[in-house]
């Protein structure tokens, strides 16, 4: 059993967007949906909040569930999660963004069956995620944000019995990654997924 969504362009993030995997993955879906847009335009459209910084003995920073942390043009920056990507998609495709975060893995693959590519979160080269920077949300809520590295965002375009087919901003190629390992990493990163209706 295999399924692939045709005509999703493969776009690499380097060298322009060293931390812009999310913007690049979203650009692939937007282009597939008929939007004529460059990855830089998508990166510029993301809401930004600051990288973690020290203040009064505490590490404070933006919230990746609300905005991109840092700047996707800067290699020392972090990234963003499903909400801001869905909101940015909505700006380019009003009424068509579909945040399906929290789906089961089988339901995720069903989006491919429906002919929709999906922006997904895992890790670079599917490496084991490790907890790195811990900081407090700059909004004063006291919420703590635990970053996991090497966080990565990619575009899921298909699957086979053994593999998922991924347009990977990191490699700039269409990759076949082991299905079970991808599932584990995707679940470890919170089952985040954004597609288009």
UniProtKB/TrEMBL annotation:
Gene3D superfamilies linked to this entry: Cysteine proteinases
Protein name (database record): Peptidase C39-like domain-containing protein
Organism: Tumebacillus flagellatus
Residue ranges the record marks as coiled coil: none
Domain Peptidase C39-like: from-to ranges: 7-170
Superkingdom of origin: Bacteria
């Amino acid at each position: 059993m295999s399924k692939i969504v045709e005509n999703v362009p493969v776009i690499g993030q380097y060298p322009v967007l060293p931390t812009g995997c999310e913007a690049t993955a979203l650009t692939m879906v937007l282009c597939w949906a008929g939007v004529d847009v460059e990855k830089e335009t998508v990166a510029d459209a993301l809401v930004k909040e600051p990288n973690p910084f020290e203040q009064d003995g505490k590490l404070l920073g933006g919230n990746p569930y609300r905005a991109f942390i840092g700047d996707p043009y800067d290699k020392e920056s972090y990234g963003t999660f499903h909400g801001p990507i869905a909101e940015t998609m909505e700006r380019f495709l009003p009424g068509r963004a579909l945040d399906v975060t929290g789906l089961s893995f089988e339901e995720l693959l069903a989006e491919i069956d429906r002919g929709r590519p999906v922006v997904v979160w895992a890790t670079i080269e599917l490496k084991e995620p490790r907890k790195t920077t811990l900081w407090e949300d700059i909004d004063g809520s006291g919420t703590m944000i635990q970053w996991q590295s090497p966080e990565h965002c990619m575009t899921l375009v298909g699957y086979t019995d053994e593999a998922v087919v991924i347009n990977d901003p990191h490699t700039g190629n269409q990759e076949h990654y082991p299905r079970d390992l991808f599932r584990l990493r995707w679940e470890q990163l919170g089952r985040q997924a954004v597609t288009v209706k």
